[in-house]
Amino acid sequence: MFATISLVKLPQSRLASNFGASSQPSFRERFREQLRLARKDYPVIFPALLVASVASVSLLSLLIYDYYTRVAPQYAAYPPLVEQALRMGLQHVYVTPDPEKAEMHLTHALKMAHESGMDPYSPEVIGIRTRLAEMLEKFGRAKGAIEVLDGTINMCEEKVADIDRGVTSQDPEQTKSLRSGMLRTILRCRAKVASLYEGEYMRNTTKAKEVLSDAIGLLVKETQNPQTKGFSEDNAAGLPLDEIASMLSQMGDLYATTGEESNAVQVYMLTLAPLRQACNGNRSCKEVQVLSNIASTMDIAMKKPGATINGQPANKENLAAARKAILAWADQAIKTAEVVKPEDRDGICDLGLISAEMTKADLLLEDGKTIQAREAFRSIIPKLREKGFESLVRSAEQGIQRAGG
Ligand SMILES: *[C@@H]1O[C@H](CO)[C@@H](O)[C@H](O)[C@H]1NC(C)=O
Ligand SMILES: *[C@@H]1O[C@H](CO)[C@@H](O)[C@H](O)[C@H]1NC(C)=O
Hints:
InterPro entries: Mrg3-like, TPR-like_helical_dom_sf. The chain has two domains: 1-38 and 279-405, no CATH class; 40-239, Serine Threonine Protein Phosphatase 5, Tetratricopeptide repeat, CATH 1.25.40.
């Protein structure tokens, strides 16, 4: 288990691809490119390769939820000057949007909090920082948002370091809870920073991978017996399983979209256990998506020039075996989609299913099963139309043509 987890931090040279065989940069490559375009065009409704970004979109709200909702009684505990500035700031975020004024008031709220002697590590003050980052992101100032979050991360890291050095004035129980809260904040902020780096304003996936890899490294470090137990709720950050799964799959997506398919597949596989546990054994749309991602990422890897399958150069036999294995993952995604309870179904299920069916059709075609492949592509087209993915419709039509139809 641990060997796989630590792969996240290995240098690229060690990360030989397990799958892959050369073929023309054909349908699959185009499909992948179209997925990318679709992701760009439909950032919210097209998370087919992106379970985690769905979660990270609301990550800041989650931080705020943690601070404002769960500790609601303390919300009123802001000194009047801080509360006034906060109110003004939020008014210029939501009511009469004005980035300059919003930033001014929120920064002022932080300053007032400092001057009135509020504890900078308290949920309330960290909550103001989160609001500030959220506001900057909302107005497209990703760089500023990252700076605010990085500042928060540094602050929390220093606090953790102090605690670990024994510098603390609180009782052990309070100290433990403070440390846990600091760790959670660091992890959530890093996940958010990673998604900001990945996003349209920064477009730096290298940095995004670094930041998220650090977060996962920290989580591993703070998890009890990761070698034998994998990721669990038994982590000092008290990070819940669904967030762990979300963070892992965000990492998988980053690898998948930057051509590190082998890593992506391994991290997606690590995602399954915490994801299933988080759902108490219920099948979920996110599981459909992760399974579908495993299949599509393996399929992409298998077709990369010069790649190997389980350490061996690709040949007819091991390619056939690999296709069979990938088909099994795609089928698992499709079966899972069928048993998700109707009330739990959402767009992610539909997209995960479409993606799994496309992968399956492609594999059937590669396997020379042209009749089944044609059938498969034909049955996907109406669903693609319904979703408005015209470019993918063209891919499916090309698939039918290649299958001799
Ligand atoms: C992305 O971040 C890395 C640091 O991790 C940096 O070296 C690189 O220059 C950045 N790339 C761009 C395009 O800003
Ligand atoms: C799983 O399904 C059961 C029965 O429908 C439901 O009561 C429970 O809340 C579900 N658990 C989760 C985590 O969704």
